Amino acid sequence: MSSGAPGEEYGMWSAVGVTEFEERVYREALRHPGAGPERWAHGVGESEPRVRRALARLAELGLVELPRTPDRTDGADGTATEDPAEPAAGSSPSAASVRSADITALDPRVAIRDLIRRHERQFDLLTALAGGELAREYDEARLHTEPSRLLEVVVGGTEHSVRLRQLYAVAEHEVCVLDTAPYVVDPALHSAYESEAMRRGVAFRTVYAIGGLEDPERLAQARRMASFGERGRVLPAVPLKLVLVDGRTAMVPLTRPEYGAGASAALVHHSALTDALGAVFETLWRGAAPLGTTGSGVPSATASGELTGTEREILTLLAAGLSDVAITRQLGLSVRTLRRRIGDLQERLGANGRFQAGVLAARRGWI
Protein backbone atom coordinates (compact mmCIF):
# COMPACT_ATOMS: atom_id res chain seq x y z
CA MET A 1 0.00 0.00 0.00
CA SER A 2 1.28 3.44 -0.92
CA SER A 3 2.10 5.80 1.95
CA GLY A 4 1.68 9.00 -0.11
CA ALA A 5 -1.22 10.67 -1.85
CA PRO A 6 -1.80 9.54 -5.47
CA GLY A 7 -0.77 12.90 -6.88
CA GLU A 8 2.42 12.98 -4.82
CA GLU A 9 3.31 9.42 -5.83
CA TYR A 10 2.84 10.14 -9.52
CA GLY A 11 5.00 13.22 -9.13
CA MET A 12 7.82 11.00 -7.87
CA TRP A 13 7.49 8.66 -10.86
CA SER A 14 7.26 11.48 -13.39
CA ALA A 15 10.53 12.90 -12.01
CA VAL A 16 12.32 9.86 -13.46
CA GLY A 17 10.41 9.81 -16.74
CA VAL A 18 7.69 7.25 -15.92
CA THR A 19 4.10 8.13 -16.84
CA GLU A 20 1.15 7.24 -14.65
CA PHE A 21 0.06 4.53 -17.09
CA GLU A 22 3.57 3.04 -17.30
CA GLU A 23 3.67 2.90 -13.51
CA ARG A 24 0.38 0.96 -13.47
CA VAL A 25 1.71 -1.53 -16.02
CA TYR A 26 4.95 -1.97 -14.06
CA ARG A 27 3.02 -2.62 -10.85
CA GLU A 28 0.82 -5.17 -12.65
CA ALA A 29 3.92 -6.94 -13.97
CA LEU A 30 5.38 -7.01 -10.45
CA ARG A 31 2.18 -8.48 -8.98
CA HIS A 32 1.71 -11.11 -11.72
CA PRO A 33 5.14 -12.19 -12.96
CA GLY A 34 5.12 -14.12 -16.24
CA ALA A 35 1.40 -13.55 -16.89
CA GLY A 36 2.13 -11.59 -20.06
CA PRO A 37 0.77 -8.48 -21.78
CA GLU A 38 -2.72 -9.89 -22.34
CA ARG A 39 -3.24 -10.58 -18.62
CA TRP A 40 -1.67 -7.27 -17.61
CA ALA A 41 -3.84 -5.37 -20.08
CA HIS A 42 -6.90 -6.89 -18.44
CA GLY A 43 -5.53 -5.93 -15.02
CA VAL A 44 -5.05 -2.24 -15.91
CA GLY A 45 -8.20 -2.07 -18.03
CA GLU A 46 -6.47 -1.00 -21.24
CA SER A 47 -5.84 -2.49 -24.67
CA GLU A 48 -3.04 -4.99 -25.14
CA PRO A 49 -1.25 -2.90 -27.82
CA ARG A 50 -1.07 0.05 -25.44
CA VAL A 51 0.30 -2.16 -22.67
CA ARG A 52 2.94 -3.52 -25.07
CA ARG A 53 4.03 0.02 -25.90
CA ALA A 54 4.29 0.80 -22.18
CA LEU A 55 6.37 -2.35 -21.61
CA ALA A 56 8.73 -1.33 -24.41
CA ARG A 57 9.20 2.03 -22.71
CA LEU A 58 9.71 0.39 -19.30
CA ALA A 59 12.40 -1.78 -20.87
CA GLU A 60 14.17 1.37 -22.10
CA LEU A 61 14.07 2.70 -18.55
CA GLY A 62 15.48 -0.53 -17.12
CA LEU A 63 12.38 -1.49 -15.13
CA VAL A 64 11.54 -4.59 -17.15
CA GLU A 65 13.86 -6.89 -19.04
CA LEU A 66 13.47 -8.32 -22.54
CA PRO A 67 15.58 -11.16 -23.97
CA ARG A 68 18.90 -10.10 -25.38
CA THR A 69 19.05 -12.88 -27.97
CA PRO A 70 16.39 -12.53 -30.71
CA ASP A 71 14.19 -15.50 -31.63
CA ARG A 72 15.42 -17.32 -34.74
CA THR A 73 13.44 -19.29 -37.29
CA ASP A 74 14.43 -21.40 -40.26
CA GLY A 75 14.33 -19.60 -43.60
CA ALA A 76 13.25 -21.12 -46.87
CA ASP A 77 16.78 -22.28 -47.56
CA GLY A 78 17.11 -23.92 -44.16
CA THR A 79 19.36 -21.24 -42.67
CA ALA A 80 18.56 -19.42 -39.48
CA THR A 81 17.11 -15.93 -39.79
CA GLU A 82 16.32 -13.34 -37.16
CA ASP A 83 12.70 -12.78 -36.26
CA PRO A 84 11.90 -9.40 -37.86
CA ALA A 85 9.73 -8.60 -34.84
CA GLU A 86 12.83 -8.51 -32.61
CA PRO A 87 14.97 -5.38 -32.29
CA ALA A 88 18.49 -5.30 -33.72
CA ALA A 89 21.34 -5.45 -31.26
CA GLY A 90 21.79 -2.16 -29.45
CA SER A 91 18.43 -0.74 -30.53
CA SER A 92 15.55 0.25 -28.28
CA PRO A 93 12.84 -2.38 -27.77
CA SER A 94 9.67 -1.94 -29.78
CA ALA A 95 6.12 -2.82 -28.82
CA ALA A 96 6.18 -5.62 -31.40
CA SER A 97 9.18 -7.22 -29.72
CA VAL A 98 7.40 -7.59 -26.37
CA ARG A 99 6.33 -11.23 -26.06
CA SER A 100 4.53 -12.82 -23.17
CA ALA A 101 7.32 -15.17 -22.16
CA ASP A 102 10.05 -12.60 -22.69
CA ILE A 103 9.22 -10.13 -19.97
CA THR A 104 10.66 -9.94 -16.47
CA ALA A 105 9.75 -7.10 -14.14
CA LEU A 106 13.02 -6.26 -12.39
CA ASP A 107 13.43 -5.92 -8.63
CA PRO A 108 12.32 -2.34 -7.87
CA ARG A 109 14.93 -1.99 -5.12
CA VAL A 110 17.63 -2.27 -7.77
CA ALA A 111 15.92 -1.04 -10.93
CA ILE A 112 14.50 2.17 -9.49
CA ARG A 113 17.74 3.01 -7.71
CA ASP A 114 19.65 2.62 -11.00
CA LEU A 115 17.05 4.72 -12.80
CA ILE A 116 17.40 7.48 -10.22
CA ARG A 117 21.19 7.41 -10.55
CA ARG A 118 20.95 7.81 -14.32
CA HIS A 119 18.70 10.81 -13.86
CA GLU A 120 21.01 12.26 -11.21
CA ARG A 121 23.86 12.16 -13.73
CA GLN A 122 21.65 13.94 -16.23
CA PHE A 123 20.69 16.51 -13.59
CA ASP A 124 24.38 17.07 -12.81
CA LEU A 125 25.10 17.66 -16.51
CA LEU A 126 22.16 20.04 -16.73
CA THR A 127 23.35 21.89 -13.62
CA ALA A 128 26.81 22.27 -15.17
CA LEU A 129 25.21 23.55 -18.37
CA ALA A 130 23.11 26.03 -16.39
CA GLY A 131 26.17 27.36 -14.58
CA GLY A 132 28.31 27.48 -17.71
CA GLU A 133 27.07 27.98 -21.24
CA LEU A 134 23.49 28.98 -20.37
CA ALA A 135 24.65 31.38 -17.64
CA ARG A 136 27.03 33.06 -20.09
CA GLU A 137 24.26 33.46 -22.65
CA TYR A 138 21.97 34.90 -19.97
CA ASP A 139 24.62 37.33 -18.73
CA GLU A 140 25.51 38.47 -22.25
CA ALA A 141 21.86 39.07 -23.07
CA ARG A 142 21.37 41.10 -19.87
CA LEU A 143 24.48 43.12 -20.64
CA HIS A 144 22.97 44.25 -23.94
CA THR A 145 19.32 44.59 -22.97
CA GLU A 146 19.36 45.49 -19.26
CA PRO A 147 22.88 46.62 -18.29
CA SER A 148 21.62 48.19 -15.06
CA ARG A 149 20.73 44.72 -13.72
CA LEU A 150 24.37 43.67 -13.78
CA LEU A 151 24.99 45.67 -10.62
CA GLU A 152 23.15 45.51 -7.30
CA VAL A 153 23.73 47.82 -4.35
CA VAL A 154 23.99 46.23 -0.89
CA VAL A 155 23.57 48.56 2.10
CA GLY A 156 24.41 47.95 5.76
CA GLY A 157 26.43 45.36 7.66
CA THR A 158 23.56 42.89 8.02
CA GLU A 159 22.81 42.88 4.31
CA HIS A 160 26.54 42.59 3.56
CA SER A 161 26.70 39.48 5.74
CA VAL A 162 23.60 37.91 4.16
CA ARG A 163 24.80 38.44 0.60
CA LEU A 164 28.32 37.25 1.42
CA ARG A 165 26.95 34.00 2.83
CA GLN A 166 24.76 33.57 -0.26
CA LEU A 167 27.76 34.09 -2.54
CA TYR A 168 29.83 31.51 -0.68
CA ALA A 169 26.92 29.06 -0.65
CA VAL A 170 26.68 29.03 -4.47
CA ALA A 171 30.45 29.01 -5.09
CA GLU A 172 31.51 25.94 -7.06
CA HIS A 173 35.22 26.24 -7.84
CA GLU A 174 37.19 29.13 -6.34
CA VAL A 175 36.76 32.30 -4.31
CA CYS A 176 39.39 35.06 -4.54
CA VAL A 177 39.52 37.61 -1.70
CA LEU A 178 41.36 40.88 -1.13
CA ASP A 179 41.30 41.43 2.63
CA THR A 180 42.03 44.70 4.39
CA ALA A 181 40.82 46.48 7.53
CA PRO A 182 38.45 47.88 8.67
CA TYR A 183 35.66 45.34 8.22
CA VAL A 184 31.92 45.69 7.65
CA VAL A 185 31.27 41.96 8.10
CA ASP A 186 32.58 40.45 11.35
CA PRO A 187 35.78 38.56 10.35
CA ALA A 188 34.67 35.62 12.51
CA LEU A 189 31.45 35.34 10.47
CA HIS A 190 33.43 35.67 7.25
CA SER A 191 35.69 32.81 8.37
CA ALA A 192 32.66 30.66 9.23
CA TYR A 193 31.14 31.19 5.77
CA GLU A 194 34.50 30.41 4.19
CA SER A 195 34.88 27.21 6.21
CA GLU A 196 31.45 26.01 5.07
CA ALA A 197 32.42 26.54 1.43
CA MET A 198 35.80 24.84 1.83
CA ARG A 199 34.11 21.77 3.30
CA ARG A 200 32.26 21.51 -0.03
CA GLY A 201 35.56 21.55 -1.90
CA VAL A 202 35.66 25.23 -2.89
CA ALA A 203 39.21 26.62 -3.13
CA PHE A 204 40.10 29.95 -1.52
CA ARG A 205 42.91 32.37 -2.28
CA THR A 206 43.26 35.46 -0.09
CA VAL A 207 45.64 38.41 -0.27
CA TYR A 208 45.85 40.08 3.16
CA ALA A 209 46.95 43.63 3.88
CA ILE A 210 49.53 43.89 6.64
CA GLY A 211 47.43 46.35 8.60
CA GLY A 212 44.60 43.86 9.10
CA LEU A 213 46.99 41.25 10.49
CA GLU A 214 48.30 43.63 13.16
CA ASP A 215 45.29 42.47 15.18
CA PRO A 216 46.29 39.20 16.95
CA GLU A 217 42.77 37.81 16.64
CA ARG A 218 42.63 38.49 12.90
CA LEU A 219 46.06 36.92 12.43
CA ALA A 220 44.90 33.83 14.32
CA GLN A 221 41.86 33.59 12.04
CA ALA A 222 44.07 33.85 8.95
CA ARG A 223 46.26 31.05 10.26
CA ARG A 224 43.22 28.93 11.03
CA MET A 225 41.91 29.39 7.48
CA ALA A 226 45.34 28.37 6.17
CA SER A 227 45.17 25.19 8.23
CA PHE A 228 41.80 24.44 6.60
CA GLY A 229 43.27 24.78 3.11
CA GLU A 230 43.11 28.47 2.24
CA ARG A 231 46.09 29.75 0.25
CA GLY A 232 47.02 33.05 1.84
CA ARG A 233 49.48 35.75 0.80
CA VAL A 234 50.32 39.18 2.19
CA LEU A 235 51.12 42.66 0.85
CA PRO A 236 52.07 45.87 2.64
CA ALA A 237 48.83 47.37 1.31
CA VAL A 238 45.78 46.15 -0.60
CA PRO A 239 44.03 48.82 -2.73
CA LEU A 240 40.48 47.56 -2.31
CA LYS A 241 38.31 44.93 -0.70
CA LEU A 242 37.10 42.22 -3.05
CA VAL A 243 35.26 38.92 -3.03
CA LEU A 244 35.24 37.25 -6.46
CA VAL A 245 33.29 33.99 -6.79
CA ASP A 246 34.15 31.62 -9.65
CA GLY A 247 35.43 34.60 -11.64
CA ARG A 248 31.83 35.59 -12.36
CA THR A 249 30.31 37.46 -9.40
CA ALA A 250 32.10 40.11 -7.34
CA MET A 251 31.38 42.15 -4.23
CA VAL A 252 33.30 45.41 -3.86
CA PRO A 253 32.72 48.33 -1.47
CA LEU A 254 31.19 51.59 -2.67
CA THR A 255 31.67 53.52 0.60
CA ARG A 256 34.17 53.35 3.41
CA PRO A 257 33.39 50.95 6.32
CA GLU A 258 33.35 53.84 8.80
CA TYR A 259 29.94 54.72 7.41
CA GLY A 260 28.74 51.86 9.63
CA ALA A 261 25.08 51.01 9.07
CA GLY A 262 25.15 53.07 5.87
CA ALA A 263 28.16 51.31 4.33
CA SER A 264 27.35 50.09 0.84
CA ALA A 265 28.84 47.65 -1.64
CA ALA A 266 28.26 46.69 -5.25
CA LEU A 267 27.36 43.15 -6.21
CA VAL A 268 28.62 42.86 -9.79
CA HIS A 269 27.49 40.04 -12.06
CA HIS A 270 29.56 38.56 -14.88
CA SER A 271 30.77 41.29 -17.20
CA ALA A 272 33.91 43.05 -18.37
CA LEU A 273 34.07 44.58 -14.88
CA THR A 274 34.33 41.19 -13.14
CA ASP A 275 36.99 40.19 -15.67
CA ALA A 276 38.94 43.35 -14.80
CA LEU A 277 38.59 42.71 -11.07
CA GLY A 278 39.89 39.19 -11.62
CA ALA A 279 42.93 40.59 -13.43
CA VAL A 280 43.58 43.00 -10.53
CA PHE A 281 43.46 40.12 -8.07
CA GLU A 282 45.88 37.99 -10.12
CA THR A 283 48.35 40.88 -10.37
CA LEU A 284 48.29 41.42 -6.62
CA TRP A 285 48.49 37.67 -5.96
CA ARG A 286 51.64 37.31 -8.06
CA GLY A 287 53.34 40.14 -6.18
CA ALA A 288 52.38 38.99 -2.68
CA ALA A 289 54.48 36.97 -0.24
CA PRO A 290 53.25 33.64 1.15
CA LEU A 291 51.55 33.89 4.52
CA GLY A 292 53.28 31.46 6.89
CA THR A 293 51.46 29.25 9.35
CA THR A 294 52.36 27.86 12.74
CA GLY A 295 51.72 24.65 14.57
CA SER A 296 51.01 21.54 12.47
CA GLY A 297 51.27 23.55 9.24
CA VAL A 298 54.99 24.28 9.76
CA PRO A 299 57.82 21.87 8.88
CA SER A 300 59.74 20.62 11.88
CA ALA A 301 63.14 21.30 10.30
CA THR A 302 64.54 23.53 7.54
CA ALA A 303 67.34 23.45 5.02
CA SER A 304 69.20 25.96 7.20
CA GLY A 305 69.34 23.60 10.14
CA GLU A 306 67.14 23.69 13.17
CA LEU A 307 65.03 26.74 13.95
CA THR A 308 63.67 27.38 17.40
CA GLY A 309 59.93 27.76 17.76
CA THR A 310 60.37 31.45 18.52
CA GLU A 311 62.53 31.99 15.41
CA ARG A 312 59.92 30.31 13.27
CA GLU A 313 57.23 32.52 14.80
CA ILE A 314 59.32 35.62 14.12
CA LEU A 315 59.87 34.67 10.47
CA THR A 316 56.18 33.93 10.03
CA LEU A 317 55.21 37.34 11.39
CA LEU A 318 57.90 39.07 9.34
CA ALA A 319 56.52 37.42 6.19
CA ALA A 320 53.12 38.76 7.16
CA GLY A 321 54.66 42.25 7.40
CA LEU A 322 53.86 42.91 11.05
CA SER A 323 55.59 45.72 12.90
CA ASP A 324 58.00 45.23 15.81
CA VAL A 325 55.33 46.35 18.25
CA ALA A 326 52.82 43.84 16.90
CA ILE A 327 55.37 41.00 16.97
CA THR A 328 56.50 41.73 20.51
CA ARG A 329 52.86 41.76 21.59
CA GLN A 330 52.31 38.41 19.90
CA LEU A 331 55.43 36.72 21.31
CA GLY A 332 55.94 38.48 24.63
CA LEU A 333 59.48 39.62 23.75
CA SER A 334 61.16 42.93 24.43
CA VAL A 335 61.85 45.17 21.44
CA ARG A 336 65.63 44.83 22.02
CA THR A 337 65.48 41.02 22.07
CA LEU A 338 63.27 40.93 18.99
CA ARG A 339 65.56 43.18 16.97
CA ARG A 340 68.60 41.14 17.94
CA ARG A 341 66.91 37.94 16.77
CA ILE A 342 65.71 39.56 13.55
CA GLY A 343 69.27 40.68 12.81
CA ASP A 344 70.54 37.15 13.32
CA LEU A 345 67.86 35.70 11.04
CA GLN A 346 68.54 38.30 8.33
CA GLU A 347 72.22 37.37 8.39
CA ARG A 348 71.46 33.64 8.07
CA LEU A 349 69.11 34.32 5.16
CA GLY A 350 71.25 36.92 3.41
CA ALA A 351 68.33 39.35 3.55
CA ASN A 352 68.67 43.12 3.32
CA GLY A 353 65.54 43.87 5.32
CA ARG A 354 63.00 42.43 7.71
CA PHE A 355 60.20 41.92 5.18
CA GLN A 356 62.63 40.33 2.71
CA ALA A 357 63.75 37.96 5.47
CA GLY A 358 60.20 36.73 5.91
CA VAL A 359 59.70 36.37 2.16
CA LEU A 360 62.98 34.47 1.67
CA ALA A 361 62.18 32.17 4.59
CA ALA A 362 58.81 31.33 3.07
CA ARG A 363 60.32 30.68 -0.37
CA ARG A 364 62.97 28.39 1.11
CA GLY A 365 60.34 26.41 2.97
CA TRP A 366 61.50 27.47 6.41
CA ILE A 367 57.99 28.53 7.34
Describe the structure.
- β6, α7 (187-199) and β7 (203-209) form a beta-alpha-beta unit.
- The strands form 3 sheets. Strands 5-11-10-9-6-7-8-12 form an 8-stranded mixed beta sheet, sandwiched between helices.
- The protein has 3 domains: 1-66 and 95-145, Winged helix-like DNA-binding domain superfamily/Winged helix DNA-binding domain (Arc Repressor Mutant, subunit A); 149-290, Endonuclease, Chain A; 295-363, Winged helix-like DNA-binding domain superfamily/Winged helix DNA-binding domain (Arc Repressor Mutant, subunit A).
- The protein has 14 helices and 12 strands.
- The longest helix is centred in the middle third of the chain and has 38 residues, at 108-145.
- With 367 residues, it is an alpha+beta fold.
Assign the CATH architecture of the largest domain: 2-Layer Sandwich
- Principal-axes geometry comes out as elongated
Strand arrangement within the widest β-sheet reads 5-11-10-9-6-7-8-12
The proportion of residues in beta strands is: 5-15%
How many helices? 14
- Range of helix content: 40-55%
- Cα-atom radius of gyration: 33 Å
Structural class: alpha+beta
> In the CATH scheme, what's the topology name of the largest domain?
Endonuclease, Chain A
Task: Point out poorly predicted stretches.
Answer: 71-91, 293-305
Number of domains: 3
Q: How much is the average pLDDT?
A: 78
CATH H-level homologous superfamily name of the largest domain: Endonuclease Chain A
Quantity of strands, as a count: 12
